[in-house]
Structure formats: structure tokens, C-alpha cells
Amino acid sequence: GEQVEQRPPHLSVREGDSAVITCTYTDPNSYYFFWYKQEPGASLQLLMKVFSSTEINEGQGFTVLLNKKDKRLSLNLTAAHPGDSAAYFCAVSEWDNAGAKLTFGGGTRLTVRP
Amino acid sequence: GPKVLQIPSHQIIDMGQMVTLNCDPVSNHLYFYWYKQILGQQMEFLVNFYNGKVMEKSKLFKDQFSVERPDGSYFTLKIQPTALEDSAVYFCASSRERGSSQNTLYFGAGTRLSVL
Fold first, then answer.
1. Taking a C-beta distance cutoff of 8 angstroms, is the pair B56, B67 a contact?
2. Does A20 reach chain B within 8 Å, measured CB to CB?
3. Is the Cβ of A88 closer than 8 Å to some Cβ of chain B?
4. What is the pLDDT of residues B57-82, one digit of tens each?
5. Which of A39, B15, B38, B71: CA 20 to 30 A from A77?
């Protein structure tokens, strides 16, 4: 079955610096890709849903890159601020599941220092 | 945005007892899910549920587990009897659709289950 590896498990950056979190997956049939943010005690908040056909996806203050050849998904927070401090999870699903059954990465705990 | 509520946030029980975890999904959603996250490990799919039936379950969904949503109330995960290895955070999710590009899962904040 699908396996998703997320790196790094912990990341600490200064305010204004960029932060990059990367996931690699194994199933070539993976079609939908997700990034979730979880603040302490809160729900997982969907940051972005990416389709297999789109390699560069711009969000508010972040970019998601999908490299299908290398089976790699990355989240790049540009100019991180303390409000970005949270746990981030990538998730992957196949086309016929359309996100109904997600395989998650292990998570990255991001700390942004003032 | 849409919110999924999980009650309680933390539950402590003795091994062998029954436990029911409650989830209040988004009001117009039709598909419901449970995921399990053991401390320090990845969140893993347990089960999805639609129209009163389990649609798909993983090998983690043991015979001691059951799910239901009686009369459109809470979507529940029941474990009977509990075992030490059931200690984990259980996340509920719901979605309006399945199998379409518009499908998005909304998650609750999780219930931490501690089996002693």
C-alpha cells in the first residue's frame, strides 16, 4: 500500500525566514495531495488540495510544489511568522478515492521564533 | 468554516471497558470517517461510513470496533472491549461527497483515548 514519509519531524526557523516541509510517496497512482495545519488543541485545517495535474500551487504566504517524477510534495512557507507555528501534515489519496481515504505523513512540528 | 466537533477531548478508561467516542459532523455532510493516531506515529485510516453502512475499513478496524450514526445524531466509534493498544488520538472527519474532485474532508480536533 501507499507509504508517505514526511521530513523533517521538527523545524525551527526565525520570523521572516522560509520553511520547507517535504513528503515523498510511493504509489504512482496517487492523484490528490493535501496539506493540513493543526494548531494545538484544534482541528486539522485544510491549507491546500492539489491535483496530480498541477505542479505549482500558490496559496496565501505559501507555495505547494508537486514533482510527480520524484513522487515528492513540498510545502514552502515564505516569510514565516509566529502564527505559522503549528503541526503540518501532508496526505495523499488515489484518483478513485478522491480524498476519501487519505494516507498521511508523520507530521512536522514547525516553530517560528520572533 | 465548517466544523466537526468531537466529544470528549480526552477519555480515560480501564482496559476491558467499553468506550464510545462521539463526533458531531458538518450538518449537510453524508460521508463520515475515523482515523487513529498513536503517539509519535502517523494518522491512519480506520473506516468510512455512508448511508448507515461501513463502506471501507482498514486492518486497524478490529472486530471490537463498531461505528454508527443513529437517526442523524452523533457519528460514534465504539470499542468493546478496549485494549491497551487502543490508546491513541481518534480523529473524526466528514465530507459532503465521495469520489469527486470536489470532495474535501473536514476533521475534528480529536479525542485522546487513554486505556489503563
1. no
2. no
3. no
4. 999 999 999 999 987 789 999 999 99
5. B38
Which of B4, B101, B105 is closest, CB to CB, to A102? B105
Question: Is A98's CB within 8 Å of B9's CB?
Answer: no
Å between A69 CA and nearest CA of chain B: 22
Give the pLDDT score at B46.
96
Size of interface A-B (CB pairs under 8 A): 57
CB contact under 8 A, A89 and B43: yes
How many CA atoms within 13 Å lie on the side-chain side of A103? 21
pLDDT number for residue B101: 60
Interatomic CA distance for residues B16 and A74, integer angstroms: 43
**In the numeric block, which cell numbers belong to residue A84?**
505559522
At B99 the pLDDT is 58
How many other C-beta atoms are found inside a 10 Å radius of the C-beta of residue A45? 14
- Mean pLDDT over the full length of chain B: 91
Decide: B33 and B48 in contact? Cβ < 8 Å.
yes
Burial code (b: 16+ CB inside 10 Å, e: under 16) for B37-64 equals beeeebbbbbbbbbeeeeebbeebbeee
- How many C-beta atoms lie closer than 10 Å to residue A75's C-beta? 25
| Shortest CA distance from A39: residue in chain B | B109
- Average pLDDT over chain A, rounded to an integer: 89
Query: Is a pLDDT exceeding 70 seen at residue B100?
Result: no
For residue B78 the three cell numbers come to 465504539
